[in-house]
Amino acid sequence: MILSLDKSYFNKKKAVILLFIVVFFSFGIKAQIRTQSPNSSSLLFSPKVVFKWDSSLRSKQMLNYELKVAADSAFANSLFQQASTALSDTITLSSLGKYYWKVVAKFGEELIDSSKVQDFTLTNLSSLPNLRLLFLTDSLVLTNGNQVEQWTNLADPSLHAVEVIDSLKPILVNNGNSLNQAQTLFFDGLDDRLTISSAVGMSEIYTIANYTIGTTFTPFRTLISGRTTGVMLRAQGGGTSFGPSQVFGQNIFINGTQTVDFAPLDSFKFVSGRVAGTYPLASGILIGSNVNLNNRFWGGNLGDIIAFDTPVNDSIRNIVKRHFCLKYNKSLDLGPNIISLGKLCDSAISAPLGYESYRWSNGDTTAFTTISLGEELSLEVTTKMGCTFKDQIAFDFPLFMPRDQTLCSGDSLVWDTQLESGDYTFQWSNGTSDSLIEITQSGSYYLRLIDQNLCELNSDTFYVLVDSSVSSLDLVPDTSICRLEKVSANIQGYSLDSIQWSSGSDSLIELIDTAGTYIISASLNGCFLRDTAFLTIQGEKPSANFSAQDFYLSPNDSVSFTDLSSVQSPDIINQWDWDFGDGSTSTLQNPFNQYNSLGSFNVKLKAGTDKNCFDSTIKVIEILPLPPTTFDDYSTPRIGLQKPKNDALVMQSEVIFSWNKVPFKQSTDAYKLEIASDSAFQNLLLSSTVNEPTDTFTLPNEGVFFWKVSLISSNQIIAHSKRLSFVYSEIVNLPNLNIFLNTDSVQLNQQSKVTKWVNLADTTVSAVQLIDSIMPNWLMEPLLDSANLISFDGIDDRLAIDSSLGIAELYTIANYSAGNTFQGTVGLINGQTSGVIFRSRPGSTRFGPSQVFSNAIQVNNVLTDDFSPLIEYKLLSGRIAGTFPLGSGVFIGSDANISGRFWQGAIGDVLSFNAPVNDSIRDIVQVYFCQKFGRPLDLGPDIVLDYGFCETDFSVDTTYSSYNWSSGDTTAQIELLPGKSYQLTVTNQFGCQYVDDIQVNFGIRPFQDLKICPGDTVEWNNGLDSTNYNIQWNIGSTDSLIRISDQGNYFFTVQDTNDCGYVSDTVRITVDSSLIDYTLGKDTSVCRGGVFNPPLLDTIQRYSWSTNSLGPEVVIDTAGLYTIEVDNGLCKAKDSIQINIAGDLPQADFSASNFCFGDSVNFFDASIPPSGDTIIRRSWLFGDGGSDTMINPSYYYSIPNTYNVNLLVQTDKLCIDTISKQITINPKPTAWFGVDESCAKQNASFTDSSQVSSGSINAFYWDFGDQSTLADTSRAQGPAYTYDTLGLYLVTQIVESDQGCKDTIQRFQKVNASPLVDFSFDGFCLNDSTTFTDQTQIASGSITAYKWFFNAGNQNFQETTLKDPTIQFVDTGLTIITLRATSDENCISVHRDSIYMRNNPISNFNLSVYCEDSLFTVSDQTLSQDSIISYLWVLEPGDTSNEVNPTFIKDLSGAYNLKQKVVTTFGCSDSSIKVLEVKAKPTASFTILNNGSGAPYQLRVLNTSDDATSYEWNLGNGSSSALAEPSIIYPDTGDFEIALTAISQFGCRDSTTKLLTVTPYFLEALLEDIFLRELFDGRLEITARVVNSGNNTINQMRLVATMNDEFQFAEKVNETIFKGERKAYQFNSTFLQGDNKKVDFVCVKIDQLNQLPYNSAVELCEKAFNNELKLELFPNPANESLNLRYVLPLNGTVEFSVYDQLGRRIMDQEVGNQEEGLYLLQLDVDQLQQGVYFLRFNYNGSFFSETFIIER
């Protein structure tokens, strides 16, 4: 925050910036926002991410924090950016991958602070490759509260782990802090298990588990195993290790280490196994059991299970491990940064206890460490499971500190630390010692802060720049100018922050129209200036303009320019300054210019008045070659271009170019197509020669392109087109486009209705309709150039985009066909729940209010909401400055799903942008709609007249709304004049404009101005038949051809037989006589190697010598006759000259040395004379006015500078050569440095003060004079060096400038001895005396002062000056001991150590009244500074516990002694004992005397409870009672649970419940499911689940099981099943299957309930384990119907046919695809005659036959 004051606004009072109002401050280290979570490089599994950070310490004000989340570290692809004052935020990420995040703090819009960039990776376990099992303890199906019936496999829903028998189900438990509050499944070790019944391939498995029923394993206790084979994790009896694994071999890992030892068994461990390939577990998996045998069940807890069927890489394994670490371990949290409350000394910190290992970044390896001010420490901890967690913490001090400042000249700044001066010593860099300083000069400032404990803090350096630049500016001087001339502020190269004129303009340039006083205000770097200028008007500014001949020219013709400039009277234009763009100029009003080359030229005219007022204009002319002087049979040089039209939009990279066929083109001629990315065709993309008027080219990129066509004959251009431009842009690539619904990209159903309108901008967010009846139609609209549209019926048609999106601009085309006004509130395009976009206003032709676009709706590009007339198609658009979020998506054709709100009419393409776009993008969208839905203008090819010069009638399409011809006509019909070009601009109903042109040509050959050489003749043939036309030339000829050899103007007139005439252009023929008198002059002599220069003329383009030299000058090597030929591009001349040799040229050269100022520069002549010649003269010019004629002079320069040195040498043959070289005399630096006495073992600082007047010093060399080492040198500018011993050392400094100039200086450095501080101490317990013994030594001198500091935190600080003090510590905790020793030479050394004082804990616990046979918990109340690591509780006579809050149970009442002993982590202990009293509990008991009666029912109970004094009844119907034996009436049938709680006088309780059933005696049961299991010996085990579907209790039932309709057994079940209750019953009998004959299916039915026969029509059947097809027909013989029962072993396709005895097929049925299982079909055979038939069954292409008989 820079506070800058404009002195001129405050009466030039001194401005002072007080930094106590500046809220920013920093610390000993760079302040930075500390991020908390997610940590860098962390791995996350939930897309909902909570971001947390600490507050910024740079400000006391309320800051806004902006969270930024991106997919790249540069934050170019920002995904989330939101500001708030909170210190956390939550976002939900939409995709997996790596993310980056940071937090910035802002005060207003100013950036105050920023965090480091952190990264994290979001992954999903279920998406891991080769994942086969994913069992999470959060995905369970529970019964009876916490019994696990199904463990859901999130990787494969066909592989759930299931147990249906209640007594075998494990339970879900919470393990509290021991597993980070995570849940596990507990297996009781008796019979709990879960089963996966399908085959599984196993490669790697991961889980977490413990074992709780012993300190060693009982044999074969199994955690996870195959059902019949494939042991994975099974215990080895009598120890703590797993036994041999059939699946994993020795590749078992526990807590990340390859081992089979699971000790200690009761602690949780991360367990995994892996195999190189895949092990097949064909029969499935048992969890918690090996096989169904006693004592093989796991006793303990089991967490998540993750398994893969193929080996994975280490990165996948790390993801799995991180999941277990995060779920089952506590992450590390060191808390927020520490902010010092005033002290600058080290602070003690501790991490949470309980981790296996600690590793601080400072090397400490316990939970405790110390941290210095300004230091940031990181800690890595490891858990018992081998998981690592990291966190960091910093120790900061709130020293107020401004950021770098820029002051205006004359301002001052106050830096106030806001610290009490009595608490600290202030050492400022400018020498002051107050708590604040006032700054008025540029420079760097910093503070050294020392507290009362002599601990110190060095601030960052703060830079101040005093800006005096603005004060020196004279923005606008007083002057006279011309009216309407622009005045520019003179900013002298500065980049001003702002400028403002008294007129309100903020531009550097101001347009002046009246005389007067103008005030200009400017600011630069926050400093302000006001300047006043008085401007007078000297005259009117003219308007420069001109015209030029507009036809093709030869390179040597003259272009005629006509001045069209004007000025307001009475001023007159009397000055012209032409620049023709080729280097030529003129001051004539209407000049000619002769161009000597082809191409485009910028012609500039500067016109001036008699008042010296000026204006300029620039126009471009193009010089093109004419056809040759003898013309072939052609009629016009113009080529009309067809496609693409000018300013057209091309949406594909492959473009077809077409143009008019030139009628006079001959077979030897060719078209030349040129395409460029610039209008000057400098960047050519294509230059193609073709024979037909069309070509195709693929554009390399999107953008604006230019094209033109020429006709080439004999390498000459004989016809030429205009230059057209077009835009190539693929709509889907437009920036911010989020919807592009193209009516050509739809998906139709079978009725050709639109089921999907594909969004080409994002195909995942398309407009969809899945219900056939409300799908819109797809139609072709002839009125819109046969474009496709989507038609909505106004009843219920609509399309929906169901994803959230943002809208900033939207464009479409539509009409409404239900009437002349809107019939109710109907929606065209709207948000699904909110965000009205285009919705009608009932009974009008207008749209209603738009929540998205407000009033910014345009119809046919006009800002209006009026859509009339509704039936006509219109372009419709809307825009807003920001983005409107549509969270629920968009409806097209509807407002909401409400009757009467549907659009009736058609809709064209829809384009939407999620952010505002610029006008160029909007132009592209407009052109796109105009091209697709409008009819482009096409005037056809140019018209060629067969005869005559009369007008031609012409008409165009009449469907456009307006016509504008270049001739001024405004209708569709026009008369075209021969020889003229016409351009037509039309506008359609959408406001789209289309442009095309056409020309009427006739058969006159073109001819243009020419230059000829003297004696040349040119023919002009106008190509007309003189017998059909009356021709008259201006030279008197009446023929069609004339021959011209004289300079002059020529033209002709012609009249046809229809009295229509034509006058040709005037052609000027110029005879070029510029080279007639060209001569080389008289003969001469030249030194060999010298040059001869001929006369030079501006018009000459080429020089050619007889020596083959092509330049104007020629090098003379030998005497002889030299001939030159010159050519001005049209005419030529030739001359010769005799040149003799005077002598040979010398070769001048020299070198120099010593370029440092103060030394004389030595020059060495290195010139070489020709052989036999002698150099007789030398002339040196040294560039500063000095000269010399010596061969090798020395010269002293008086000042450093750059000089041009010239040497001239002359031989005795008077041949001369010269050479010039540049040398630079560089200033020498001045070496100097400051020294102060220093101490051994401490840094001696050397301050460089060397200077150089220009350039810089870029090399330093120091020799510190320490003879004890070779490493006593440095190349730093301001080095520090530590001397190990005292002494006097000679220090040498050599400095070298960037130009290699050096200087040297030597000075002595005195080094005094430093104390070697050390001490020892003993005594660590609180209230003991701790003695500290000084062990300091010094090599020379003596120790004159000691000072001890004992820092136990801010509340307990001691110090002493004794040599060997004894300290009585009164507080526990970490104390930092610092000893500072000072020598007689004032050398100070410091040594630090630490001691931790600890106290004994205070044992204590709370007791209450307890009841027998009830678990009770004793609450620990021990007080301790340190963590308690050991608890021992002893409850007489022998119950013990090591828990913090132990739980006991006593089965007998009485008084018991309870003793507690606690021990801390450091061995401190305490004990206490208390008496615990256990009271006897009552016995709750009652009988329902008449249970099972019908309604109404009166309750009768007999209370048989003992030792109770009060009772609580819950009567099951909402009633309660405190009576001993209550009695109430139950009027309705039902089940009522009666609960009794008996309470003793001591509050001991006992409860019991009984079920009361009031029923109408309706008895019914249903079979719900059958479970089959094939045992290892082939026996078939059957379990049936029965539900009581009646109203009475079932006490007995009989179940009958039938196998393959052949074998049967029945069993009675004597179990009570209440109404609605389900029970699973496993038959005691099992069916032994044969080796080759397994059961196909099993059916179960109920035939007896409560000893009564039960006839149930439902028999439940289930496919068994035979993997063969089973077919059965019954009854057989059959009469009216026949049942077909079959068992499919696998999924497959089924069909069958019926044949009679003659082989005729009489019945077909195609069943289709069916899953494996048992099926029953009933066939209607009533129409079959009596006899024998055959059923042919086709299953997956295999055929099976069965025979059946029909009897009548």
In short:
This protein has 1752 residues and is mostly beta strands.
Structure description:
Strand 20 (252-254) and strand 21 (257-258) form a beta hairpin. The protein has two helices and 151 strands. It is extended, with a radius of gyration of 53 Å. With 1752 residues, it is an all-beta fold. Strands 11, 12, 13, 14, 15, 17, 20, 21, 22 and 24 form a ten-stranded antiparallel beta sheet that branches.
Could you name the key traits of this structure?
151 strands, 1752 residues, mainly beta, ten-stranded antiparallel β-sheet
Sheet with most strands: 10 strands, antiparallel
Amount of beta strand: over 45%
User: DSSP helix count?
Assistant: 2
Helix content: under 10%
As residue ranges, the low-confidence spans are 1-30, 626-636
Number of DSSP strand runs: 151
User: Which overall shape is indicated by the principal axes computed on the Cα atoms?
Assistant: extended
Overall mean confidence score, pLDDT: 85
Strand-pairing-aware structural class: mainly beta
- Rg of Cα set: 53 Å
C-alpha termini separation: 108 Å
